[in-house]
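Schema walk-through. Below, the input block comes first and the output block second. Nothing else is stored per chain. Lengths vary across the set, and this one has 164 residues.
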Amino acid sequence: MEPCVLSILGKQFVRAVSTSACACGKRNFKKFPIYNKRGTKDFKARQMKNPHPDVPIHTYGTRPIGYKAGTSFMQIDEMIPEIVVPDLTGFKLKPYVSYRVDDVVQPAMTPEELFGAVYVKKITEDFKMGKLGPDNQPLNPSPEERLAPEEAKEKVLTIRTDIV
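--- output ---
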């Protein structure tokens, strides 16, 4: 069939009829993965019997609970996830906190505040009653005075959260 050529103002327009489909370039199917549900029924059946090593088995984010040894699957009980849910009977708090609640912001605790919260009361009582020994050490130290610095800080932080 001879194409029809039309020329208007120096431009040529070609009109032709084609009986074959347009190729529109080369197709590269290697970049389109066909694992699991994207393949045909025949492809899935072949993958179940003899999986192709280049086509990965996609698990969609689930963790395996065993391993495949030859044609059989070996389940490992330690790999099965165990969901531990606490018993909330008699729990008094509600499970919802409103977004309208003001943010609680606590400034960093200074050493002076820590000393005042834990030790000042006992030291002033010992001083007024004359129960301080040489070098102003207490004769009968209280449990608070025996605390390590980390334990004292933890105790004060729990007291501050109870007040707020």
